[in-house]
Amino acid sequence: MILKRLADPDSDATELERRLLASRTDPKPRANDRAAVWQRLMLGLTELPEADPTSLPDELVPSAPAPSAGGMAPSAPLAWGPLVLSGVFGLSVGVVATTSFFLLSGRESSPPPLAPLSSPSASALDASIEPNGRAPTGASVSPPGVASEPSAPATRGVPNVSQEERVGQAVRSAPHPGGESVAGVPSASAANAASRLRQEAALLRQAREQIRRGSLDEASNTLAKSRSAFPDSTLLQEREALTIELYMLQGRTLEAQSLASVFLAKYPHSPHAAQVRRALHTEQRPAH
Amino acid sequence: MTKLRLVQRPEARVVRPTFVDLYRDHFDFVWRVLARLGVPDRDLADATQDVFMVVHKKLPEFEGECRPTTWLYGISFRVASARRRAAPARREVLDDALHEPTNERSEGLVAEAAHYRRLLSEALDRMPLEQRAAFAMFELDGMTAADIAEHTGVSEGTINSRLRLARQIFRRFVARLSAREASRSGSDGGER
Question: What is the DSSP letter of A4?
């Protein structure tokens, strides 16, 4: 029997069910996760058999010069090939250049027992694979040295009135040009609507320029700054359109599509609708 | 008349992937499975490390009786399951979250999408792990029941059954959510 997917156009799913399913993300590791986990594994897997550097993938063989201790050295992007679940996951991998990599040789040899880690979970893990299903508590291996990447802050701030209205009000009340501050976050009490609008517009210009340059992380930070500084955004649609474009370029396709579908449903006649549709056909660009 | 000749076949030999092969080829797979099984983003690196530590230990016992991904899936499932049992109960928190309104007028689209994503995550958290895995692979990743069966090492009929049960949970959750939103809209005087 073949089940129909709820997300299929002709399924009987409700609008809310579709929205929830459409909000899914594509869980991919970040560029340095592979190398970071590898490094941590190397810290735990000691007393390994004789070194056989030829058994290591080229990408993980140390290369000079070595980076500073504990750091992830950015390297040339490497394609890791197709995986089973869904398509190709091309990744840029930071090569961890520690000599401990030479210690690993798994080919045709029996791995030694795991050495205890700094955290107590190695033995607990054994329990997790026993058929009786006993579960270890706190089966977390957390060697130090791997920093988590900051995620974009939650966004708040859609205006109660239409964007056109707010832009109109702000522009009408703007007495003079100049005095633009891109980096500064204005105090709501001090800044009038016009100067806030100019500052917000400058931030968005900056984000747009960063996206064009391929500085995607910087663009992400700039947009986050805009959300935080202008929760009651006057230029909300432009910001959302840029966010969608950024997500596409970062390869966060599902998130971009999810945002785009909501955007186009809410603002079908937005001047940015075409930009959003175009963004959905944008190819992923490696971050600089 | 055909003469039968004995052809000497090369000796059947288990080609066991090396640890490095598995890490290189299936790191993303393990990461993805763990995420779909509900391991929070912040714990994915730890959980993936747990999986590969078990892989390292158990590799000599792997005789190639199934695809490497099926074997890895089994290990990932047990690691995720252990983590889920160890996590504090979240139901009360989740129930509270259902009461939080999505103020579409005052939140951006990013926040709105994040809101739906959180609700999806809550719906998935209500499913037993086997059902959650089947639901996520089928409804979110677009895999067929046959593919899921191969990855999880159970029959297609079992997968279909898990999918039906998981879907019931999902739909009940969304129905409850809709009812609450409708009730809230009513109490707001239908302003939204």
Answer: P
Task: Tell me the CA distances in angstroms from A83 to A73, A80, A218, A232, B69, one per residue in order.
Answer: 25, 8, 30, 43, 10
Q: Residue B105: which residues within 8 A CB-CB, separation 6 or more?
A: A158, A160, B192
Residue of B nearest to A267 (CA): B109
Calculate how close chain B gets to A68, using CA atoms only, in Å. 22
pLDDT less than 50: residues of chain B:
1-4, 6-9, 11, 89-97, 99, 101-106, 190-192
3-state DSSP call for residue A95?
strand
d(CA A198, CA A182): 9
Of A104, A91, A109, A90, the C-alpha closest to A56 is A104
User: ipTM score here?
Assistant: 0.74
Q: How far is Cα A181 from Cα A203, in angstroms, rounded to an integer?
A: 9
In chain B, what are the helix, strand and coil shares in percent, each to the nearest 5?
A: 70, 0, 30
Q: Is A177 helix (H, G, I), strand (E, B) or coil?
A: coil
Q: Which residues contact B85 (CB under 8 A, 6 or more apart)?
A: A135, A137
Give the list of residues 6+ apart from residue A66 with CB closer than 8 angstroms, or none: A73, A97, A98
Q: The tokens of A208 are what?
A: 């747009």
| pLDDT tens-digit map of A225-248 | 888 888 777 778 888 888 888 888
Query: Do B52 and B17 form a contact (C-beta atoms < 8 A)?
Result: no
- Give the CA distances from residue B165 to residues A3, A13, A208, B130, in Å, rounded to whole numbers and listed in that order: 12, 16, 46, 10
Query: Which 8-state DSSP code applies to residue A190?
Result: T
Q: Which of A24, A249, A55 is nearest to B18 (CA)?
A: A55
Tell me: pLDDT of A116 over 50. no
Q: Is the pTM of this model over 0.90?
A: no
Asked if A101 is an interface residue toward chain B (Cβ–Cβ < 8 A), one would say: no
CA atoms of B27 and B30, how far apart (whole Å): 5
Q: Cα distance from B185 to chain A (closest Cα, Å)? A: 15
